[in-house]
Amino acid sequence: MGEKENNPPDPTFITGWEGGLPVPQVMVLGVGNILLRDDGFGVHFIQSLQETVFPPNVQILEAGTVSHQFIPAFRSIDYLIVIDVVEAGDVPGSIFRFSPEDMNFHSGQKLSLHQISLTDVLQMAALTGAKPKTVIIAVQPKDVSEWGLELSDEVRMAMPRVKELVFDELNKIKAITKKFISKTT
Fold it and tell me: Which of 14, 117, 120 is nearest to 58 (CA)?
């Protein structure tokens, strides 16, 4: 009898899933300027996940103020979950889930790469063939006009619910199951 081969599992499949379903490659991207209080929510959110262990198919990244430099990374993912703030004229701390297609505004001419928005980056990525399915989970800020590193109480209190929504999204697209997420001690 031959010996059993000890090949490592294919990283695109999570063993133990029924039928060996392919595992989607996902990026959770926190964006914002941490120097402008609530505008930094996305970055603070990613920092709050530091002790959470994700499977290799889920990347967790701080983007700060979104940059065109992420476009190459978008080519290797199936799904993009963006965490940000959105000025919706609602109560501070309100949470919204939408897609880029739901955002109905046009970007004007840019004078600098520092003026590129998330929408601009996604449009540029699409031009290069990078079109991950994108979901944006955003919180209504209270204060993005004053300098400061701390979030307002209203926005900070939205953090646990945003975490639930991100994990729900990851479960829905079958990127994780509860058994693949754990806290390090």
Answer: 14
* Class of residue 107 by CB neighbours under 10 A (exposed 0-12, middle 13-18, buried 19+): exposed
B/e letters for 86-102, b = 16+ CB within 10 Å, e = fewer, are: beeeeebbbbeeeebee
**Paired strand residues for 59:** 27
Give 66-84 pLDDT, tens digit per residue: 677 788 888 899 999 999 9
**Greatest CA span in the chain, whole angstroms?**
72
Question: pTM of this prediction?
Answer: 0.79
Distance CA 62, CA 79 (A): 16
Spans of all domains in the chain: 23-175
Return the CATH number of the domain spanning residue range 23-175: 3.40.50.1450
Spatial neighbors of 80 by CB under 8 A, at least 6 apart, are 26, 27, 29, 74, 132, 133, 134, 135
Q: Contact at 8 Å (CB) between 41 and 86? A: no
